[in-house]
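From the shared-data thread, chain only:
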Amino acid sequence: MDDEIGGVTDGRAIRRIFDELSEPFPEGDIKVLNKGGRSFSYLDWPAGIRRLDAVLGPENWDFTLRPWGADALIGTLKVTLPNDVEVVRENVGGKPKMPGGDEDDRVKGAATDALKRCMMMFGVGLYLHDTHETPQSQPYRPRPEPSRAPTRQEVGKWYDKGGDQGGKPAETLRRPRDSRSFFAWMMKVKEVYSWDDILQDVDAAFKSGRYPKTYKDWTTEQVESGTKWVAEMCSKTETYRGEFDDILREAR
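Structure, as tokens:
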């Protein structure tokens, strides 16, 4: 049964939003701090903002700051859900110690700290803090309307140099190995094929009570089935260049 929030029963859509906010990030968005012989991973804050924009829409979230003593700021992150309910999370960001540093830089540091902490309260990048070990980063970002074929220029940027006829698929389009890399792979397919609703379409095809609600819980066999289905849909576009032929051969 869907949860009821604000008197509107649309818990499924709302859970989906939080699932998408919580998805892992690409390696390029993760920074690593080596301290005391250990490695700590943390999210580059602009990537968190892009995640909020992509999942919620820029118009559906707001972040404000107010002072808390002389050395900290309180950040308030307000999110508006599809049922118009507002969810608010607050957290504190401390001004870093910067001997001889500019006060403006200390304020920026506190603001960034507060923003990241607030985003984590919505699940953004929270998985990075589940362990002190540096995790294997995978992505985010939330159909091909198979009838909407991308231009050759759009597809070509994902290929290594090799000419119009002989380019090799880029690393980003190699088949996924597991549930986490499956999500990352779908995000790259979405960009290459302009398949904006890929997640919704995969959900409709596979999550009708048979598959787990979140991709990270899919088994290897379920990931393989999803990969083959996505590859088949992409192969129907006008500018398909054979990057999934090996997957399609195995499906026959």
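The beta strands are 4-5, 8-9, 30-35, 38-43, 61-67, 72-80, 86-94.
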